[in-house]
Design a protein that fits this description.
Elements: H1 10-27, E1 31-34, H2 42-55, E2 60-63, H3 70-75, E3 92-93, H4 96-107, H5 117-124, E4 136-138, H6 147-150, H7 155-167, E5 171-173, H8 191-194, H9 217-234, H10 237-241, E6 243-246, E7 253-260, E8 263-270, E9 276-279, E10 292-295, E11 301-303, E12 307-310, E13 314-321
Parallel strand pairs: 1-2, 2-3, 4-5
Antiparallel strand pairs: 6-7, 7-8, 8-13, 9-12, 10-11, 10-13
Helix pairs in contact: 1-2, 4-5, 7-9
Length: 323
């Protein structure tokens, strides 16, 4: 119902491309988040993105393709071999499919075809993408309920969602306020609540998330948790460049490994409320037996042998150097 520009008009098309380049050059932009990428004329969009990337090879364009179908997400990305010969020249598309998988996996009970298997299958489809490492993944954004709301106010599940996001072979996006459990419970889906001002960003705010003043213990804990995960991720080549090996979820747990030049990062999701002991021989092919693993969050050490006991529901991040 919204009016369109006629991008098949060569004069208008050239103007739009020149205008984009002017903004990039004038403001020294490093990237563009392009709304509703598939809606305009697709040949123009390929020309627009291709011209920008040719002019600025290190630039990044993220295109919004709101679909849970990986085939549609893959179609627009640069280098994807489409049957119609189309190349969208787009650096990155948005992984709405993974967002849905994470939400459903944590909200559903473990059963055949539901629960953690949703995350596993969502990641197992990576062969469909020309460059999965450049797909942008997220748990929520400005157009949907915040992740804390989507996960029904479950802090542990919110931590699991965020840690999994940050271990994936993806470009992660975190919506502001997730680190202090911002939500829209009062009126789910209301854009005014979803886009609420960040606490402490304005004069007279009674809560200040920059200093911690007025934050609850749960908010401070979440903020600290994300700081630790993000600071670890920042320096992990295994997460940024490594191979991904993951195993079909079993007994309410899901093991994912990121591996690069001797560095191994292990992400374990455990949905069990009661303590559970896991047989680690199932993951013997990774070659971790006898290795000292460090817990990224607690700093504690753990020797990877035949089994591991997970005492509480949540996610565990372990790391080691193989050499």
């Amino acid at each position: 119902s919204m009016p369109d520009l006629n991008q098949r008009n060569p004069f208008l098309a050239k103007y739009i491309i020149q205008n984009s380049i002017w903004w990039i050059e004038t403001l020294q932009l490093s990237g563009i988040r392009q709304d509703t990428y598939p809606y305009p004329d697709k040949d123009f969009m390929a020309n627009w993105a291709g011209t920008i990337m040719n002019e600025y090879p290190n630039f990044s364009i993220v295109g919004e393709e709101w679909t849970n179908n990986p085939l549609l997400i893959a179609y627009w990305q640069d280098g994807h071999k489409n049957n119609d010969g189309y190349n969208g020249n787009l650096t990155s598309t948005m992984d709405f499919a993974m967002q849905e998988h994470i939400r459903d996996a944590l909200n559903q009970k473990e059963s055949w075809g539901e629960g953690l298997i949703r995350m596993y299958e969502g990641l197992a489809i990576d062969f469909a993408y020309a460059n999965p490492n450049m797909i942008m993944a997220f748990t929520d954004n400005h157009d949907m309920s915040r992740v804390f709301t989507q996960l029904n106010g479950d802090v542990t599940n919110t931590k699991i969602a965020m840690s999994y996001l940050l271990m994936l072979p993806r470009v992660p996006q975190i919506y502001y306020g997730t680190e202090i459990l911002m939500n829209d419970f009062e009126k789910p889906g209301d854009h005014g609540l979803i886009r609420t001002d960040f606490a402490g960003g304005w004069k007279g705010d009674s809560v200040n998330a920059f200093t911690g003043e007025g934050l609850s213990d749960a908010q401070k804990d979440m903020q600290s948790y994300l700081k630790k995960v993000l600071n670890f991720r920042k320096h992990s080549k295994a997460i940024h460049q490594g191979n991904t090996v993951h195993f079909i979820p079993s007994n309410g747990t899901y093991f994912l490994f990121r591996i690069f030049e001797g560095e191994v990062v292990v992400h374990i999701i455990n949905k069990n409320e009661a303590p559970i002991t896991i047989d680690l021989k199932r993951y013997a092919e990774i070659g971790l037996k006898g290795k000292t693993m460090k817990n990224v969050i607690t700093g504690e050490s753990f020797i990877w042998n035949d089994e591991i006991t997970l005492n509480t529901k949540g996610s565990t991040i372990l790391t080691t150097k193989m050499k």
